[in-house]
Amino acid sequence: MLRRLWLLIFYVPLCTWILIPSAWAQAEARLTWLDNRFRVDPEIEQITFVVTREQPSQSVVLVAPDGRKYYADRHAKTMSWYTDKGMDIISITHPMAGPWQALGKVSINNSIRFISNIQLQAEPLPAQLYQTEVLKFSAQLTQNKQPLLLRDFLDRVQLKVVFYPLTSILSNKSNKSNKSNESNESNDPTPIEVGQFADDGQEYDEVAGDGIFTVALNVNVEPGKYRVEIASTNGVFKRAVEQTVLVYPAPITTSFVQSHQPLTSHSVNIEAKADQTLAGSLAAYLVVKQPQQKPRIIQRSSHRQQSHLVLTWPNDAQIGKAWWRGWAYVTDSLTQRELVFRLSQQNYTQVAAVAVDFSASLAQQQAKQQLIIQNEQQQRLLWVVITNIVIVISVLVVLLMWRRKRAVQSDLIVPK
């Protein structure tokens, strides 16, 4: 019994000394450092501090190792400072090595967390895009080449996709106007925002909070050459990824034919360019809303070797506003890339058919017919009169000439 007691007295402290450093090391990363101080190593090129504050409180004051103080509205150009209710996110490029301190009502329940070596990684866009095309596009933030999953940080990150026009492929303007436009675009291109990333598990985003930001990139820009920039826009951190793409005209055309007769259907005609798309790969999906009816879905796909579709729905003769919208799908023949195009909502109005009084219409038709008959009879009578006059005159002329001839003969003296 004494032997077992001595063994417990000996081994328990040893195990405690072995386990405590490990537990302390794990807790140290989560707990606030003493007096809100933290040390930055010399090899760190970029660092971000996420400071949680008590409420109500103002933004913290950041004190550098050399004693310089930085504020949310007064800080160095190498800093980006994002302040939110109860939180400061401060990013510093090439921070001074040594002890830093955050002065303010730092919450005792949250640590000052450090994020270093943040990188923005984005999938490469296809070099050839199409106007009105919609494609799924993803980007991710990493820390030391590992996915960054700090929700307090990620929830405040805003990533946008911006197109900067470089040259125009299609232009109907004069050469002088083109040169002027190209000069303006190259000097000061007007940015076109085409999408914002989200990590909320909605629409194209697969999993909320997994650190992968996704956007339904709507390439609703004019055909041409663009510099595409993916960048942070809210000052949490400064990162950007760029590449150059070409935007071509859409390889499909869409036309809508509205019916004005109850027995004739409305129709949407979709035509794919045979030299740019695979035959038989065209499909479409429409949502149609007619007056006093719930939206209905119409789906069609082309048969083999076909490059067109016709989607129809009946005209129910109801009065009111109506609309349709949808999607078209086709395969690029050159790259075998599956293309998705949004068919923007098109509104139209269904009006009531004009009520017709058949009896009145019949009477009008009969009156018109009678008038036509009378006109024809008058024309015939006129021709008869004219013809008779011509005949009478002709007879009179003939008789007059005959009488003159006889008178001349009777006046002749014949010698015996």
TrEMBL record:
The keyword Transmembrane applies. Keywords: Membrane, Transmembrane, Transmembrane helix. Signal peptide: none annotated. The chain crosses the membrane at residues 381-402. Residues 173-187 have a biased composition (Low complexity). Residues 173-196 are annotated as: Disordered. The keyword Endoplasmic reticulum does not apply. InterPro entries: CHP03503. This is TIGR03503 family protein. It comes from Photobacterium piscicola. The lineage of its organism: Bacteria, Pseudomonadati, Pseudomonadota, Gammaproteobacteria, Vibrionales.
